[in-house]
Write a structure and sequence with these properties.
Length: about 160
């Protein structure tokens, strides 16, 4: 059996404990929680998104999405828009206030990301990213077709 400190969950937890503090400082400064931040990041990437898709993209439990969106809506950062073609569908969109926040926060996030990437070579970063994505997809039996290791046996 491998050493506890060298198990994948412990390595990932240590990495997160090292990586997240500068991001958490930004969340605190703007009175956001990590789940709220995840939702905003996704909402900022497009025009509108259904809450069920938000849950999938942010890896948040669908049951918790409604409450998080409620709090973001109270802060004036997102709004709910009913679909004109399907009355059951509700889309989440970024507000003008949210876009101002995005403009203010994005350079700060980019600076953190740049600093993180500067700690290792570009090849090391790319390899780490590809390896983590590969592990995640393989464990979920969903390896992307464009990944070289995507064969019929490990995509099933």
């Amino acid at each position: 059996m491998e050493e506890f400190d060298q198990s994948l969950p412990m390595i990932l937890n240590r990495a997160l404990d090292s990586v997240l503090p500068p991001y958490r400082e930004i969340f605190l400064r703007y009175e956001l929680t990590e789940p709220q931040w995840r939702i905003l990041r996704v909402v900022w990437t497009g025009e509108k998104i259904k809450s069920v898709d938000l849950a999938s993209r942010t890896l948040l439990a669908p049951a918790s999405i409604v409450g998080i969106i409620d709090r973001l809506e109270k802060k004036g950062l997102v709004s709910r828009v009913r679909s004109t073609s399907d009355r059951r569908a509700v889309y989440i969109t970024a507000t003008a206030e949210s876009r101002k926040l995005q403009e203010e926060v994005s350079p700060q996030i980019a600076a953190i990301q740049k600093r993180m990437k500067s700690l290792v070579s570009e090849d090391d970063w790319d390899h780490m990213e590809q390896t983590l994505v590969k592990i995640s997809y393989l464990l979920n039996n969903d390896l992307p077709a464009d990944m070289p290791e995507a064969t019929a046996e490990n995509r099933q």
